[in-house]
Specification:
With about 260 residues, the chain is of the alpha/beta class. It contains 8 helices and 11 strands. It has a single domain, classed as Survival protein SurE-like phosphatase/nucleotidase (Stationary-phase Survival Protein Sure Homolog, Chain: A, 3-Layer(aba) Sandwich). InterPro entries: SurE, SurE-like_Pase/nucleotidase, SurE-like_sf.
């Protein structure tokens, strides 16, 4: 399907981020790209949405004064109706683990597209803690962009999206040449803490500190283990997140 795809690109870092520009440039080699992205940074807003949003045109595409979910709805519903695929990213920072999926604006954009029955991919770039504040240029996103292009070019129409509603891709440290691509599952690991100091409670996500060591407890098939080992992680996911069985709940409800 190379060259024939209509691709809607969005993100949660905002339309001015280098990650979305790198993604749009890379995907333009395999299809017609329309960018519909937040006007400013909307990281970690999850699936928050609006009833009305202002839109303006930029050199890259449409800037929406709203959330990533708003961008997908506005894009699919009006600005770029029913594309072949929606791609969200490239996010500065990884979106790893089950607990992150609902928080991430990047992942939430892909989930929203899935509800429209449009194949979608969320793509993110892992940065170790010591590199988090570093300003990244477009080139830093190269291997994440190439990996995403590979999925877009080959997954759409291949049957992949008959088995998964969306894919969550995480590329390793940009200073590390990726050692291939691995199918993964989101890690179940979780380590949030809270400490009160007078009128304030400090909330800390300690999972990122646990990424700094090769003694990571996550299993070999997890997204976190893959990126630490220098591989590109791709997790096939479904929306909504429903269990495969609920016999015990049926028994409980029947007893009411």
């Amino acid at each position: 399907m190379s060259g024939s795809l209509d691709i809607l690109v969005t993100n949660d870092d905002g339309i001015e981020s280098p990650g979305i520009r790198a993604l749009a440039q890379e995907l333009s080699t395999v299809g017609e790209v329309t960018v519909v992205a937040p006007a400013d940074n909307k990281s970690a807003v999850g699936r928050a949405s609006s009833r009305e949003v202002r839109v303006r045109e930029t050199d890259l595409g449409y800037a929406i004064e709203g959330t990533p979910v708003d961008c997908v709805v506005a894009g699919i519903g009006s600005l770029a109706p029913y594309p072949d695929v929606v791609v969200a990213g490239i996010n500065k920072g990884a979106n790893l683990g089950m607990y992150v999926l609902g928080r991430s604006g990047t992942v939430s954009a892909a989930v929203e597209a899935a509800f429209f029955d449009v194949p979608s991919i969320a793509t993110s770039l892992y940065l170790p803690d010591e590199k988090w504040k570093r300003t990244l240029d477009i080139e830093a996103y190269d291997h994440a962009a190439r990996a995403t292009r590979h999925l877009v070019e080959n997954a759409v129409g291949s049957g992949v999206f008959e088995e998964a509603d969306y894919l969550n891709l995480n590329a390793p440290d940009p200073d590390v040449e990726p050692q291939g691509m691995r199918v993964t599952r989101p890690s179940r690991a979780y380590d949030m803490t809270a400490e009160r100091d007078g009128e304030w409670v400090s909330l800390k996500d300690r999972m990122w500190q646990r990424m700094e060591t090769q003694s990571l407890a996550d299993g070999a098939d997890t997204d976190r283990r893959a990126v630490v080992e220098g591989q590109i992680s791709v997790s096939p996911l479904t929306a909504p997140h429903t269990p495969e069985g609920y016999g015990k709940l049926e028994d409980l409800v029947a007893s009411y």
